[in-house]
Amino acid sequence: MEQDERGKGHRLFLMASPLQGHMTPLLHLADILFSKGFSITIVHTVFNSPNPSSYPHLDFHAIPDGLSQAEASTLDAVKLTDLLNARCRQPLKDFLAGERVPCFISDASLHFTQPVCHELKLPRLVLRTGSPSSTLVFASFPLLRQKGYLPVQESRLEEPVPDLPPLKVKDLPEFPSQDPEAFYKLVCRFVEEFKASSGIIWNTFEELESSALTKLHQDLSVPMYPIGPFHKHCLTGSTSSTTLLTPDKSCMSWLDTQERRSVVYVSFGSIAAISEAEFLEIAWGLANSNQPFLWVIRPGLIRGSEWLEPLPDGFLESLGGRGYIVKWAPQEQVLSHPAVGAFWTHNGWNSTLESICEGVPMICMPCFADQKVNAKYASDVWKIGVQLENKLERVEVERTIKKLMVADEGNEIRENALNLKEKASVCLRQGGSSYSFLDSLVSDILSLESSTFKAH
Ligand code: UDP
C-alpha cells in the first residue's frame, strides 16, 4: 500500500497536559501525525514528564512549569491546570519565538496557549481529549447557570435538563476542587478559546457522536476533526506504553487462566479517589458476585491509605484465586483479552473509548467532571453499559454485576457493544469517517503552513 507521508519535511509542536488521561491521547496523536511523515516535538511540563527513551522517534522539550513540590500534584487537577496556565505562558513564548512551524497543537485545558499563539501569529489546533458529547455540556455551562441548573442542587438531581437530553441534573459535570468556582471558570475559559483556534481534533468517531459534533461546529464555527479512536490507528511509530506508571503485566497470564468473558475488570483511572468505606463495599460486592475480577488499586486510590491496608486480612486468599489485584494494568491489552466480560469503570473518556473499541460492556460509576456525561451516554444512548445506581453498597454491586454478566439484560447490552466495536473499526479503514477526517487534517495543517509563512 502506498504510504501517505505528506508531512515529510515539516515539524509539528504538540503540547501536553501532564495528566495521564490527557498525555496518553496526545502521545497517540503524535504517533498518528508521525506516521503521516511529520517530525514531532512534544512540549511538556517538567512535572510528570514523559520518558523520551520510550519514544525514540519523537523529540521532547521541557517547559519550566514553576511548580513547587507541594503544587506538583494531581490531587486537585483543576488547581494544577490553573497554575500551569499562569506559569507556563512566558516560557512557552520564549521557546516558540522564531520557530518555523505550520501550527501549534495543544491540549484544550492549556488555554493560555491560544493567546501565546495569537501574539506570535501562529495558528493553534486544539486537542480535546474529552468527548464532544461532554464538551457540548461544558459549552452550555453559562446557559445552565443562567437557568439555575448549575451549581447542582441536591433537591433537583432527578430533573431532566431540557436542552441536553437525556441528561438529568445529576449527570451534570462537577469537580471536587478546593475552589468550587475554579472548575466552572476553567471550563468556560477553554471553551471560549476554542473559537479563536484553527480547529479541534477529537479522539472520537463521527458515527458515535455526530449530533454533538454538528452542534459544536454550529456553535464554535471552527473545523472539527474527529479522527479517533487514536489508539487503533495502524502506526509506524512507537508501540510502547503511553502511561506514566509502569503496567504490571503479570495480570495477563492470570487472565489466560480464566474462562472466556468471565472476568470483571475494575479500574477507576489515574485520578479518582474513593473512601475506605466505599473501597470495602466494592471489595465485598466483587467477592459476593462470584465472578472472577481483575482490580486496579492504584496507590492513592483509597483516601488516607498508602495502598491495600484497609483490605481485610486473608480477603484475596479466601477467594481461591478468583481475584487479582495490580497497582496499574496494561489496560488496552486487558480489555482486548477474551477472558474479560465487563469493565467496571469511572468512565474517563479514554477508558470509555478503549472499552468501546474492544466491545466490552461497562458498569458505569462516574466520579466527577465529564465522566458523568460519558456514563449517561454509555448506559442510555449507546446502551452498552449499566449504571451503578443508588448508594455504593455491596448488595448493589453484586446485583449490578449479575445483571450484566448473568441476566438476559446483559446479552442485549453485550450485543450493542459488539456492534459499536465494529463501527469503531470501520471508521479507520480507507473511506471511513476518521480516515477521511485525518486526510483533511493533514491537508489543512499543510495549508496553514503556507498561510502562516505568508503572514510573517
Ligand atoms: N490506564 C492504564 N492502566 C490502568 C488504569 C488506566 O493504562 O491500570 C490508562 C487507561 O488505559 C486510559 C488512562 O489510563 O488510557 C486513563 O484515562 P481516562 O480518561 O480513562 O481517566 P483519567 O485517568 O483521566 O481519570
Describe this protein's structure.
Pfam families: UDPGT. This is UDP-glycosyltransferase. Belongs to the UDP-glycosyltransferase family. The protein is an alpha/beta fold and 456 residues long. It contains 16 helices and 13 strands. The protein has helices at residues 20-35, 77-87, 89-96, 113-119, 132-139, 141-146, 180-194, 206-220, 250-256, 276-289, 331-335, 349-358, 371-381, 394-405, 408-426, 433-455; strands spanning 11-15, 39-45, 59-63, 104-107, 124-128, 200-202, 224-226, 263-267, 293-296, 323-326, 340-345, 362-364, 385-387. The strands form two sheets. Strands 3-2-1-4-5-6-7 form a seven-stranded parallel sheet, sandwiched between helices. A six-stranded parallel sheet has the order 10-9-8-11-12-13, with helices on both faces. Helix 8 (206-220) links the parallel strand 6 and strand 7. Helix 10 crosses helix 14 (394-405). The longest helix is centred in the C-terminal third of the chain and has 23 residues, at 433-455. It is globular. 46% of the residues are buried.
Number of strands: 13
Query: How much strand content do the residues show?
Result: 5-15%
Q: Which small-molecule ligands are present, each listed once?
A: uridine-5'-diphosphate
Number of domains: 2
Contiguous low-pLDDT stretches (5 residues minimum) are none
The CATH superfamily of the largest domain turns out to be Glycogen Phosphorylase B
Could you tell me the CATH topology label of the largest domain. Answer: Rossmann fold
By CATH, the architecture of the largest domain is named 3-Layer(aba) Sandwich
The SSE order reads EHEEHHEHEHHHEHEHEHEEHEHEHEHHH
